[in-house]
Amino acid sequence: MTEIKACLFDLDGVLVDTAKYHYIAWKELADGLGFPFTEQDNERLKGVSRAASLNILLEIGGLNFDEAEKEKLAEKKNKRYVEYISAMDSSEILPGALDFLKECRTHEIKVALGSASKNAMMILDNTGLTPYFDAIIDGTHTSAAKPDPEVFLLGAEALKTAPEHCVVFEDAEAGIEAATRAGMVSVGIGSPETLGAATIVVNSLQQINVARLRESFVSA
Ligand code: BG6
Ligand code: MG
Question: What is the pLDDT of residues 157-181, one digit of tens each?
Fold first, then answer.
């Protein structure tokens, strides 16, 4: 890469800590259906769309439902999830996220959201993050889920920036694969064991700034 022109951020687990609310809401659904659902099971749902998450949950419980019933179950889970995220505020922005978003502005690096969530707008508004984005692509704009590159390609298009000048920030394996398939470099937020396919991996956005990104990615 010759220049970093845009940063594309996943939402859940990168900018805000919503995984705990997804977990509680899915666990309540599993409790109601009569099977255990652990935090380790929940790892399998990270980065995965709502419908695909329900399929994994039902597979764990060894249960089968028809499409109409599955829709009702997904709605039930989402209703609970929305109750939790309705109460979110800026205290739930993950460490380093706000400073880095501000730094992108200072350096005139464009910023887009690339999230699978259909609740992204509510989360961005409640936490006060909306004004930091030049483009927002979420689960209401996409037809294919990560690891399909669609969400990031739409983000790059909205920012009028070529994929080779974009950096993706992701905490899910499927998201890193989506970035690579979009022709973008990536920063994995989390553990190198699961995110080894990312171009670089850090613990949190606290370890990242524009100078470090340039050092890691800009070669000429
Ligand atoms: C992703 C989360 O960002 O969004 C997944 O990592 C979640 O866990 C997916 O299932 C869809 O979110 P929502 O808010 O549309 O149910
Ligand atoms: Mg995520």
Answer: 999 999 999 999 999 999 999 999 9
Contact 146, 178 (CB under 8 A): yes
Looking at the structure, do residues 104 and 184 belong to the same domain, yes or no?
yes
- Which among 12, 41, 99, 138 is annotated as catalytic? 12
Tell the residue number behind the tokens 């659904």, with chain if given: 29
pTM of the complete model: 0.95
Q: Tokens representing 30?
A: 């599993």
> How many structural domains is the chain composed of?
2
Residue 1 lies in a domain: no
Domain that holds residue 183: 6-17+91-219
- The residues lining ligand 1, judged by C-beta closer than 6 Å to any ligand atom, are 11-12, 22, 45-50, 53, 78, 115-119, 139
138 is catalytic: no
Question: What residues have a C-beta under 5 A from ligand 2, the ion?
Answer: 10, 12-13, 47, 171-172
Task: Mark whether 10 and 25 lie in a shared domain.
Answer: no
The position carrying tokens 């666990």 is: 27
